[in-house]
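Customer ticket, subject: "Can you confirm the structure for SMc04008-like domain-containing protein?"

Message body: Hello, I'm evaluating your service for our small team and ran a test protein. I'd like someone to confirm that this is what the system normally returns, since I don't have a reference to compare against.
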Amino acid sequence: MTDHETTLLEAATFRRLLQHLMHERADVQNIDLMILAGFCRNCLSDWYREAAEARGITMTKDEAREAVYGMPFEQWKSQHQSEATSEQLAAFEAARRAHPKPGPA
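Agent reply: Thanks for trying us out. I re-ran your input and got the following:
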């Protein structure tokens, strides 16, 4: 497989992931994604913006979030996001302690 073909497959896979998170599993809260997977939709939007900036493309945080959420973030929050429960917050903190982010080298 060529580098171009790999890039096309990766892009299609990323688009499918976004569709899944936007439509099929909009019910899954970001905090639950963070607890279980260590990343959420906001992480994806940060990575998207970082990739754009690495290629000289200026992108705001809001623009990146809209690309990932498929709508303005505030609209997503009002339609899909609920307040984190005390159980979710405790699980998030336990996951954070169990899997700390690596610091600078």
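A couple of notes from the result: The chain has a mean pLDDT of 93. DSSP finds six helices and no strands in the chain. Feel free to reply with more questions.
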